Amino acid sequence: IPARLTLQVWDADHFSADDFLGAIELDLNRFTRGAKTAKLCTIEMATDESSFPMVSIFKQKRVKGWWPFVARNENDEMELTGKVEAELHLLTAEEAEKSPAGLARNEPDPLEKPNRPDTTFIWFLNPLKSIKYLIC
Prior knowledge:
alpha+beta; two-stranded antiparallel sheet; about 15% helix
């Protein structure tokens, strides 16, 4: 059984059926290396794979880049419908147990407290407080 990763994008309609927007299927033994930027990510990466460098997740263990989402239009031609930035990691069972997806990430770094003035100069909302800051 070939190792394949299929990514699909669907819209989320509330009152009608969800619409298929695009997909990409990657053969994990040999797939197109992801583009470094979204601008370099083109439909040719999905349709003409032979002209792009190929990678194997089983040899490289970690791959990051941009890949195109494609779908067939009404003329049955492939059409670029979107792009996705993804990072793929191949882990052993022990590594996956140590850092499960979503739980291994650190908390985001907090921002510094902004330097705000003690008062706002909206005098019409609180004129007495504004007068106090102007006098003192």
